[in-house]
Amino acid sequence: MPQLAVFPKAFMHELCKDGTMKVSEWIDLAVELEVDGLEWYAGFLEMADKSNWPIFREQVERHGKTIPMLCCSRILRILMPLFGKRKLKNK
Fold first, then answer.
1. Residue ranges of E strands in the chain
2. How many of the other CB atoms lie within 10 Å of CB of 64?
3. 57-66 long-range contacts, Cβ below 8 Å, gap at least 24?
4. pLDDT tens-place values along the chain, 91 residues long
5. I want to staple 36 with a disulfide (CB 3.0 to 4.6 A). Which of 3, 59, 71, 84 is the partner?
6. For 32, what's the count of Cα atoms within 13 Å in the CB-facing half-sphere?
7. CA–CA separation, 5 vs 69, rounded Å?
8. What's the rounded Cα separation, in Å, for the pair 10 and 28?
9. What is the pLDDT of residue 3?
10. Residue 53 in 3-state DSSP?
11. How far apart are alpha carbons 68 and 65 in whole angstroms?
């Protein structure tokens, strides 16, 4: 059976722009899903502090999950500001 991991696409603004969601909160949500792992994004605000890295890894592994992928996509860095502008325009 193929392994499956989740990515927090619905929470990107909260995790990467305004900080209203903490990475630990997203981990707590994601580990409840029937998946094998959590995909990671280098742009999470809390990833700027390298001392958080082992804490997040331990939190994920404590639930029997893995972090199989670290996304550093340039597309996400380009699209996130555009998404924010579109959101404001629609209000």
1. 5-6, 37-38, 40-41, 70-71
2. 9
3. 59/24, 59/27, 60/27, 60/31, 63/27, 63/31, 65/30, 65/31, 65/35, 65/36, 65/37, 65/38, 66/5, 66/36, 66/37, 66/38
4. 668 999 999 999 999 999 999 999 999 999 999 999 999 998 899 999 999 999 999 999 999 999 998 887 666 556 666 655 554 444 4
5. 3
6. 5
7. 9
8. 15
9. 86
10. helix
11. 9
The residue assigned the tokens 């997040």 is 56
**Calculated CA dihedral for residues 71, 72, 74, 76, nearest 10 degrees:** 50
State the pLDDT at residue 50: 94
Q: What is the Cα Rg of the chain in Å?
A: 14
Q: Which residue has the tokens 């792992």?
A: 37
